[in-house]
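[Q] Does anyone have a clean structure-token version of this?
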Amino acid sequence: MTVSNPLIDSSGEAQWYFSQVKGTMEDEVNEADIISTVEFNEDGELLATGDKGGRIVIFQREQPTKSQLQQNDFNSLRTEYNVYSTFQSHEAEFDYLKSLEIEEKINKIKWLRRKNMAHFLLSTNDKTVKLWKIRERNKRAIIQSSSASSEYSHYQNHTSLMNGNITVRDDINGFIRTVSIPVVKYMDRIEVEAIPKRVFANAHTYHINSISLNSDQETFMSADDLRINLWHIEITNQSFNIVDIKPANMEELTEVITAAEFHPKECNLFVYSSSKGIIRLCDMRQSALCDSQAKIFEEREDPTTKNFFSEIISSISDVKFSHSGRYLCTRDYLHVKIWDLNMESRPVETYNVHDYLRNKLCVLYENDCIFDKFECSWSSNDDHILTGSYNNFFKSFNRNSKQELMFECSREQTKPRQQLRPKRVTSSNLSNGQANGNSSPLLNSKRNNLMNGKTNSYKDEVSVDNLDFTKKILHTSWHPKDNIIAIAATNNLYLFYNKENTNPTSSMASYISSCNSISSNSSINCFNTLSNSTFSTTPMNPESTASLQNSQNQLNQIQLNTSFYTAPSSGFTNQPNVQTQQTSSQNTTMSL
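[A] Here you go.
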């Protein structure tokens, strides 16, 4: 039994479509508007972003209406997110004792599991972690007043202040003067407010680079360059130091902590990575201070290939557990590596993100881009990996088929439901068609795709010399349940979704969906093929079989006469369709 992958279409390529882009599209970018972190909550209904200005913007997934649910037209709406709440999480501070300025930039955001009608999240800058409560409440408005007049004779003299007016009860004259009563009315509009519940401060000497919530939902850890502290969510004035790699003599310092994360299921396990490319798995049951790791994951480097940049590019910028807790995903400067917790010697999978930059490490070192910290994300089923690159490129890796595809966050691809075209970075000689004499493999693959009736998936190529290193995708997040990805590109937030996000309920719908991916130049009538062959189980008669074999022999002869043409596989069930395909193939050959 073959299990179909919802991210892959009939042609074998991942199908991603544009959904939304948030943020201004101006060329001039304000430094405070640059997005510094992106995070979905546990069910994916909320999406939070933090920026360098200390602000947090929360987006809420739009709900379909009843009519759209009845028409089953909710696939596109469920990929859209609207602004839910915006608030200032951190302010710029100054440490007078150390003469150090503390930036308001949001480094990380982590959602807590929802327990009631409110939402809770943790946010941190370089020094302080805060717990925020996000809740909804009805908007209350006070109408100016409601005048009421009554006559009473049995009240004592009494004065009261209501709505700024003094009312007097007069027993002598036997009546009450006009009384102004304020009226509080609940409006239909719901107001979302963010309330700071806890502030976890004064525990880190160095800059906090990551926070991680434990699976018990009661504790979390915060990691800086040399220490990792364990906090209880209800206690702000006390934390426990569980990792300390600071040497007695700072001149002996050889590595720093770059990222840390708790195991998604085992509350006693956590990992942290270092600038040496080492991942350490620790068990808090062994000792209070986890100086000795339970396991250490390290891939030994070949000494013959070691150079000045080896240690820099081997530094791990992000580490993530898979949803199952079995694997680890790490990202260094050039690679994404998948580690099995049962094998420490080497990664089980290694993917090249932008290996074409090896020859430009000197340039990247001079402009400090070599120190950029890229993040990685798991898909909901742990079958795909998502990470970013330069020139606003992001890359997805299929762990089953080992397929690697690169796409671009571009203003030119912002039409609703527009399919993203795969990108390719080439060297100068390959882009000019001179890789192998007068004919390049890339050109041959293009011709093969054209002869097979496929669109040219890689027609957008970028030379490695033309990459824009100021445009980079450092932060990504994958929806925890659906095939929706959120990507931060400088000050813009892009949302993309997979075409098969909602599985079709019939084979007819699935077939029509695959037919839409066929090029418009193809002369095959998909609906005729469907009606004549898809649901037919009757065997072909001998005359049709002979006709089909004759047509296949003709196609094979065309294949021998053309060096770059690959004959399509036999999948036709009637003579008219075979003739149509043959005529289309001959016309295409003549045009070339």
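[Q] Thanks! Anything notable?
[A] Confidence is low (pLDDT under 50) at residues 145-164, 430-458, 501-540, 558-592.
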